[in-house]
Write the structure tokens for this entry.
Amino acid sequence: MSEEYKPFSGRHRIYQSEEARIFWAQFYKHAIEDFKEQIEELSDYLQLKVKQADWHGVADAAMDIRELEAKINLLKELEAQ
């Protein structure tokens, strides 16, 4: 099992084993899938709030979706390293 010098999050560097790379790849994949499912549910909720003219609910759902999309983008960046 070889250890490799690999950059992590820009400023920090760590040694990662093959098992660690596999673990993190699976973690990122499952987390991204989970966030995408949450976005789908929030999209349905957002549509309901639009029909009800509940603009605070629309804003809350939209902000939650934006936050989840940011998390997905961060995980994709980490996954690419």
